[in-house]
Amino acid sequence: MFSVADVDVTLAISGNRDLLLAALVYLLHNAFKFTHAHTEVSLGAYAEGDHVLLDVEDNCGGLPPGTTTSIFQPLVQVGDNRSGLGLGLSIARRNVEADGGC
Questions:
Q1: Would you call 88 exposed, middle or buried from its count of C-beta atoms within 10 A (0-12, 13-18, 19+)?
Q2: Are strands 41-48 and 2-4 parallel, antiparallel or unpaired?
Q3: Quick one: how far is CA 35 from the chain centroid?
Q4: DSSP secondary structure string, 38-69?
Q5: For residue range 33-75, what is the model confidence (pLDDT) as tens digits?
Q6: Which residues of 3-38 are buried (b: 16+ CB within 10 A; e: fewer)?
Q7: Contact 84/71 with Cβ under 8 angstroms?
């Protein structure tokens, strides 16, 4: 199941549509891949200063301590599911950074 949290309709970003859309797709794909069956993946957006931040939240049970930075590095995988290459989150991060985001 997928839900979109209440989002302020006045939020807007300017940027490379293809890069940012691909980043969002990689984040959502990762969430769907690892969330537990019959649970929800949610997407939220909010403003913080002059940035728009997106939250993708799943129900995977959490990450092992100390892995939140490394999972955005190429070829890094945590957990038992090794069905991918470990590139999705690193591509998402690089797309956002390439478009001036952080």
A1: buried
A2: parallel
A3: 13
A4: T--EEEEEEEETTEEEEEEE--S--PPTT-TT
A5: 989 999 999 988 888 888 888 889 999 888 888 888 888 899 9
A6: eeeeeeeeeeeebeeebbebbbebbbebbeebbeee
A7: no
Using an 8 Å Cβ cutoff, are 75 and 85 in contact?
A: yes
Judge whether 47 and 11 are in contact, CB under 8 Å.
Answer: yes
d(CA 56, CA 70): 18
Span 18-47, average pLDDT: 92
**How many angstroms separate the Cα of 23 from the Cα of each of 2, 19, 55, 61, 64?**
18, 6, 12, 23, 23
Residue 45 burial (C-beta neighbours within 10 Å; 0-12, 13-18, 19+): middle
- Counting every residue, how long is the chain? 102
Report the alpha-carbon distance of residue 97 to residue 91 in Å, rounded. Answer: 10
Token readout for 87 is 């590139």
Take residue 62 and report the two structure tokens written for it. Answer: 């959490």
